[in-house]
3-dehydroquinate synthase
Amino acid sequence: MKALQVELDNGRGYPIYIGSGLLAQTELLTRHIRSKQVAIVTNETIAPLYLAPLRAALSAYQLEAVILPDGEQYKTLGYLEKIFDQLLAAKFSRNATLIALGGGVIGDMGGFAAACYQRGIAFIQIPTTLLAQVDSSVGGKTGVNHALGKNMIGAFYQPQCVIADADVLDTLDDRQLSAGLAEVIKYGLIRDPEFLAWLEASMPLLLARDKTALAHAIERSCANKAEVVGEDEFESGARATLNLGHTFGHAIETGSGYGHYLHGEAVAIGTCFAADLSRRLGWLNDADVERIVALFKAAKLPVTPPASMTAAQYVDLMAVDKKNVDGKIRVILLEAVGRASLPVNVELTHLQETLNTYVG
Amino acid sequence: MKALQVELDNGRGYPIYIGSGLLAQTELLTRHIRSKQVAIVTNETIAPLYLAPLRAALSAYQLEAVILPDGEQYKTLGYLEKIFDQLLAAKFSRNATLIALGGGVIGDMGGFAAACYQRGIAFIQIPTTLLAQVDSSVGGKTGVNHALGKNMIGAFYQPQCVIADADVLDTLDDRQLSAGLAEVIKYGLIRDPEFLAWLEASMPLLLARDKTALAHAIERSCANKAEVVGEDEFESGARATLNLGHTFGHAIETGSGYGHYLHGEAVAIGTCFAADLSRRLGWLNDADVERIVALFKAAKLPVTPPASMTAAQYVDLMAVDKKNVDGKIRVILLEAVGRASLPVNVELTHLQETLNTYVG
């Protein structure tokens, strides 16, 4: 097992445990639990796989399992309220602990529920998808979607720890594995060219679920994320670079209906958009863009947007992105392969040209 | 005008401006606004009184007024979502500023909306009731109610400033004025015996809305609140003493249906409960309890609970209070007139005796 540390002020730093067989190491979990009351928030897909062993490991506690339906379309205030309903019915107090057991949706919702329940209770992330292990479980971004925009309602709220057990990836389907690789590739593109080269060489091993390769990808991704979050917890600067491809990606997720694309799939398409825009600014050349597109394709990810969406729809959906200032559209681009830009105002003509390339 | 400062770490301290005619001093407001986008959250009672002048003062901004129905029964996640709907429809970004213009309900909901919208935007409190000016607008407690408990969903989220204009109390009805006095009396009871004696002497002046007396009551209350919050922002210690009477009060508000009692009325009744329990522990004598009850009566506040509620209902409702640990009921009591206790576990027999006195 490896333990990386996310460094934050006021004693709020926390460990990310990475390794195999971690879910069976109950002590990793119990050292971060504050009282007898423990809620496990999970979904209908994950519960049959991992809830029973977790329940058994925590049999000394007053356990409450909240089982939500599986999918991005349920990441709403309405389903968040179901978590509150159950915790209040069980009379859970402010020193209870909430464990989010699942992928990015469950981690975001469980974390936001923990942030708001009685103005904040302890929570622990047990991510069960590659995407959640390498990205969403680390850094304290929590929230739910709104019909008008993804992750528009939420909080910065840090967990007590993150437990990333590579063994749970055995039950992940291929599509979910690829979606996670989109965020892994992102770290290489924005700040770690050496890792990017390793990913290009190792993609066949990763898709074949080689344990050593996967563990290395998780570690390197979490190390990059922890560094960025430690520098800029509330996204006033460098943290925004983690959003490479996300402004376009969120527009695709919202515009095509939550649940149609996996988040990582939309990010892959969005990053290809961002690479194209970077070329129009003269920051990348044709070969750079082709290299990026090729890596996403090698990871079995989509690289072109849904035919159903119009350019006007993208502009409209991107206008509510959290990085915008006074109504201007701002995105993260690439100054080079391996180096992200800070948020830049997008020229509407460039945006239109890029969108025309794809959405005709 | 006086400006008190709430001292918090990480540069999050903020001023409370107290005086007459402050709403006309636009610069007080604009120095805390971050961008062109300004949302005003208010309700149907306050909007006709104060929205037009505020709009006029802020005519240089992109203004969005969110007008909610008036009453504690609308302090729900459902109505909170209406705020998000409107801000997203207007494409408000993360550097927008939200102004809460209203009483405690509007301040709590506006603050919670600001805490969650795009994971946090700037907000300003303009409290329009005495209760909000002396208590709820200061200290960063925000949130909404749940059918199973008051303020159960929320966040600690501090404003940029609080503007307490004593002139707005001219439009407050007598019942609301008295409700505010319940929280004013609380400061005297928990930590300021000199202020308590002044309140006993000045109650007729306060009820007659003498401006000098009211301004003194607001200042002294805010100074007490700012000190307590500065010492213990997240209620791990001394801040809990501000909840004197609130555990019982919340049970009354929830049990009798939100909107039936004003918050201050329920707190007055709850504080009389707490005084009675303190006597049973030998901390207060009969004369102390009579003195406390007499002051609430002088402020035209109720001191006996609704006949409709049973002792079992109180115990059940108090079991979800935020101060509880592992299911034990904990309340703030008085060690003396002018000195609060820290949270104490309540003996069920004592609680039953106190409840029997009132609810038969």
Q: What stands out?
A: Chain A has a mean pLDDT of 93. Residues 174-359 of chain A form a domain with the Dehydroquinate synthase-like, alpha domain fold (CATH 1.20.1090.10). The CA atoms of residues 149 and 254 of chain A lie 6 Å apart. Chain A has two domains: 2-171, 174-359.
